[in-house]
Amino acid sequence: MRIGIAGAGNMARVMGARWSQAGHDVLVGGRDAGRAAALADQIGARAGTLREAAQHGRDAVLLAVPYSAAISVVSELANTVRGRTLIDCTNPLAQGFVLETWGGPSAAERLAAAAPGASVVKAFNLCHESVWRLTPPVFGGRPLAVPLCGDDALALETVRLLVRDLGCVPVNGGGLGRAGLLEATAALLIGLWAGEGADAQAIAPPLEYAGVDLA
Ligand SMILES: NC(=O)c1ccc[n+]([C@@H]2O[C@H](COP(=O)([O-])OP(=O)(O)OC[C@H]3O[C@@H](n4cnc5c(N)ncnc54)[C@H](OP(=O)(O)O)[C@@H]3O)[C@@H](O)[C@H]2O)c1
Fold first, then answer.
1. What is the mean pLDDT of each run of 10 residues along the chain (215 residues)?
2. Ligand 1 pocket residue status of 60, Cβ below 6 Å
3. Mapped to the 3 state alphabet, what secondary structure does 94-162 carry?
4. Which of 11, 99, 100 to mutate to test ligand 1, by most ligand atoms within 8 A of the CB atom?
5. I want to staple 94 with a disulfide (CB 3.0 to 4.6 A). Which of 73, 100, 161, 172 is the partner?
6. Ligand 1 geometric centre to CA of 64 (Å)
7. What is the pLDDT of residue 107?
């Protein structure tokens, strides 16, 4: 696949490295040309501007900038990402592990509104970059499950393939209207981990205790 990554920080480094290793043609685009070039060199990708990343990402564009910059970055690239799969991994977290989008549309929905015609898929926002670095992320013998929220079947299929490339298992999280739940889940988890030092993984019981009829 041809994958563009808008942003040249931690997530760009990790996801770009993993997808390059999986054989994809990755271009990392940053506002700082030197930083993007240095990162691309390290991970076996190409480098360019943010716009060049969006142009390159014929199959998918990963938005890897802070949420505070995401709407303006995507608005600038709106024409270029039209008709493309736009992967949103942002977490709109404010101080106190709360969502700055609380009470309104999710970050993913705001990004979709800023880039009409792009197929936004919310993914990869629940885990720290150190998790995506693992080859593969398997915990207690179970591969990490990655929930996806989006409305476009083709875009979802693309992101499912990219999830599998990481050695993870994609899980259907529902339409883009449910992306806010993924963002709220990240806020809860990060608050438990960073705020309380709690083992957040322990909050969910095994499936057989979920109270649903599995027959
Ligand atoms: N890190 C994680 O563990 C993790 C996990 C899940 C989700 N996320 C989400 O992934 C996204 C990226 O996180 P990260 O850790 O990769 O961040 P990061 O290391 O701080 O990198 C952010 C990148 O965005 C660029 N950027 C910042 N403001 C910009 C602007 N106004 N215009 C254009 N580019 C701008 C930065 O450019 P410069 O290099 O020029 O500063 C940098 O290349 C965030 O939304 C975060 O919530 C992160």
1. 98 98 98 97 98 98 98 98 98 97 98 98 98 97 98 98 98 98 98 97 94 81
2. no
3. ECCCEECCCCCCCHHHHHHHHCCCCEEEECCCCCCHHHHCCCCCEECCEECEEEEEECCHHHHHHHHHH
4. 11
5. 100
6. 5
7. 98
pLDDT (tens digit per residue) in 68-84: 999 999 999 999 999 99
Two structure tokens written together for 107: 């970050």
pLDDT of residue 214: 73
* Cα 208 to ligand 1 centroid, rounded to whole Å: 38
Q: Ligand 1 centre from 83 Cα, in Å?
A: 24
User: 2-200: what CATH class?
Assistant: alpha beta
Nearest CA owner, ligand 1 atom 9: 90
